[in-house]
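Reopening: Amine oxidase domain-containing protein still failing for me.
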Amino acid sequence: MVCKILLVGAGLTSAVTGSILRKMCRKHVYLVVWDKAQEVGGRMGTTRSPSDTDCIADLGAQYITSSQENFTKHSDIYGSLTGANIIEPLCSNIGGRKDLLMGGKHFVAPYGMSSLVKHFLNGAADEIHFGYHVVSIYKEGKHWLVETKSGVKDMFDIVILTMPVPQLLDLQGSLREIITKNYEMEQNLKSVKFSSRYALCLFFDSNYKFNIGWDAKYVYDNEIFRFVSFDNKKRNRPDLPSAVVFHTTVQYGENNMYTDLNVVRNQLVGHVEEMFPDWPEPAHVKCQRWQYSQVITPYTGQPGCLTISDHPLLVAGGDSFVSSHVDGCISSAFTLADRVGKVIKTESE
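Support: Ran it again with your exact input. Result attached.
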């Protein structure tokens, strides 16, 4: 018997969960990934200059920090990433960064953070569909009927949700009814809170070389920006074309979350010009709104995985149920895979 599983979201949690399930269940699962975006990554997305494919930048997560405990606990995951040259030790100069605890490690993804997600999805997913924005999930006997905003429908044996909880609460159908009937679950879900922020990327002509004494830095005396990075240098690739990434403060993000994106873009670009008046005009500019940037208040107890329905199985995971860092996503993925794997094993016996 083959179990058809839908993974909603093409971020790190979903990718690692799929990879673990593939190794655990092999041909007993058929894994389908749906994501509303047009590419993998989620908040670990990587963007490219429209005119230069060598000029890339991470608009979400910037680098990986792992404690000695988590690095040891997730040694198989980190071993897979380092063995495939997906990540390498961070060597750049990042000003204002917090000191590492003893035994901790910093890593960067030389080909962009989305390469981590691609690494785990490759060989794990049987189907990946982009532009599939899930809006409703209905229980149909022993299966789930899942529908997208564009009207695509399909049946699945198991559904795994990895989007931020506020987006989960927007889903309609039997899922909404199940949550509403469980007061404690509903209140715990509603208690999950995220910070909001914007990311601005300036892509520069490959012929221009910056002469600045830092690679990236945290800014603590600016009311708009909190972090700025020469992304190519941060990724240990100083010879590649420059792409400079700015992350706003949480306060700026919250104050302007519903402001027109072009207005925000122009305001942020203007502020960069005030900070660095000698910089040349960028070749391209991209502004990214992160409404759900990082978890401030995770689900009560940080379980890593929430079972919303046992029969048929529907579970939720991701940083909403742990914390917003790579090891949190990995921990959630193991918890999700363990929960799903037990059901598949029971049904196949």
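Residues 326-348 form the longest helix (23 residues). If you still see a failure, please send the error message rather than a screenshot.
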